[in-house]
Structures are given as structure tokens and as C-alpha cells.
């Protein structure tokens, strides 16, 4: 792994963790794989032309991929797999200091990295050496109450010129996913009445 300068913060402090975990529990999200989110991730990866895509909910001490897509070309040697469905499967769980989604959650803004190696802050992330990630594009999932629940993201093992079209795509798809989450909540509330 690339050395990180002393005093360099790999993962930003999470001011919202307790509120987010409570809201995720209330919505019933992030505890297990979700076939709709898997389909969403597949469609997102195909739209972006990326090898991997995730619907990622950030917990206090880990990230959980409730939606996960890994292309056939990326499956060999990947620590990410769509094979299993157990909630605590390592394939759907990633440490909080791995990847770039915790930065998106803390910033509450999309993050587009055409080549992570161009950014010293991100080049030393464990996913670079462990999975071979070279490019990332993610957007926050902000709930109607203002809580950032997690992210959607695409990653690739090659540098990618995502540019403005990529930024617009990831923002639009994040809004679509939040519409889906809010519709589910309305259905659950209607069923409870």
C-alpha cells in the first residue's frame, strides 16, 4: 500500500454516524442484500461502462453493499462478489477506511476521481492495492430529513475519463435511488396504518 504522510486523515470524521444508523434501521436498510439494489447497481455499472457498482450504506464501523454488481470481466481475483447473500458476508462488507464512499458521505457531495493515483490523498487507500481500483465515481444518498445514508458508486480497475457526463449520471442515479427508498417507506407506512 502507498505510504500515507504522518497526520494525514485517511477517512474523515463522521459527524452523522449515530443519526444515520438510526435512520437506516428505521428504513430497514443496510442489514442484508437487496435484489432491487443489486439490479440498480447492475444498471448503474452498465450506464457508466464500469466494472463494479454499489449501493453502499455506511455504518459506524463498516460499509455495507446492499446493492452490488461485479462484471464478468472483473470477477477473477476480486474480493467483491455477488455470489453470496448472507448479511454478514465479507463480500458485501468493507472496512470504513477502505474506499472512497466515506469521503462522499462526510462531504455530502459527489466525488469523481478519473485516476485515484493522481490524488495523493486517495492513492494510498487500501482498495488501490487490494482490489486494484484506479477510478471512482460516487454520489451521496441524502434522505429527505437531511441525513446522508450512504452512497451509490462505480469503480474500475482502469483510469476512466468520467468528466461532466459521469458526474451528471451519478447525481441523477442517486436521486433515483432515493426516490425508490422514499416510495418503499411510504408503502411500509401505509401498510402499518
Short description:
This protein has 193 residues and is of the alpha+beta class.
How is this fold's topology laid out?
Layout: H1 17-27, H2 35-48, E1 52-58, E2 62-70, E3 93-95, H3 101-107, E4 111-113, H4 120-123, H5 126-130, E5 135-142, E6 148-156, H6 163-192
Antiparallel strand pairs: 1-2, 1-6, 2-3, 4-5, 5-6
Helix pairs in contact: 2-6
Question: Would you mind describing this structure in some detail?
Answer:
With 193 residues, the chain is of the alpha+beta class. Helices cover 37% and strands 20% of the residues. The protein is built from six helices and six strands. It has helices at 17-27, 35-48, 101-107, 120-123, 126-130, 163-192; strands spanning 52-58, 62-70, 93-95, 111-113, 135-142, 148-156. A six-stranded antiparallel beta sheet has the order 3-2-1-6-5-4, with helices on both faces. Helix 2 (35-48) runs antiparallel to helix 6. The longest helix is centred in the last third of the chain and has 30 residues, at 163-192. The radius of gyration is 16 Å and the shape is globular. 39% of the residues are buried. Residues 81-90 have low confidence and may be disordered.
Amino acid at each position: 500500500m502507498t505510504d500515507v504522510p504522518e497526520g494525514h486523515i485517511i477517512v474523515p470524521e463522521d459527524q452523522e454516524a449515530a443519526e444515520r444508523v438510526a435512520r437506516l434501521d428505521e428504513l430497514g436498510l443496510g442489514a442484508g442484500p437487496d435484489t432491487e439494489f443489486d439490479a440498480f447497481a447492475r444498471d448503474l455499472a452498465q450506464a457508466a461502462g464500469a466494472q463494479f457498482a454499489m449501493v453502499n450504506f455506511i455504518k459506524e464501523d463498516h460499509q455495507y453493499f446492499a446493492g452490488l454488481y461485479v462484471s464478468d470481466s472483473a470477477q477473477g481475483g476480486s474480493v467483491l462478489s455477488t455470489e453470496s447473500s448472507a448479511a454478514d458476508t465479507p463480500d458485501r462488507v468493507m472496512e470504513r477506511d477502505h474506499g472512497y464512499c466515506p469521503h462522499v458521505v462526510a462531504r455530502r457531495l459527489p466525488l469523481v476521481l478519473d485516476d485515484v493515483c493522481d490524488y495523493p490523498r486517495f492513492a494510498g487507500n487500501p482498495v488501490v492495492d487490494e482490489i486494484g481500483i484506479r477510478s471512482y465515481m460516487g454520489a451521496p444518498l441524502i434522505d429527505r430529513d437531511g441525513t446522508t445514508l450512504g452512497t451509490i458508486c462505480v469503480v474500475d480497475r482502469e483510469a476512466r475519463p468520467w468528466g461532466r457526463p459521469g458526474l451528471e449520471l451519478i447525481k441523477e442515479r442517486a436521486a433515483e435511488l432515493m426516490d425508490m427508498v422514499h416510495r418503499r417507506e411510504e408503502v411500509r407506512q401505509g401498510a402499518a396504518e
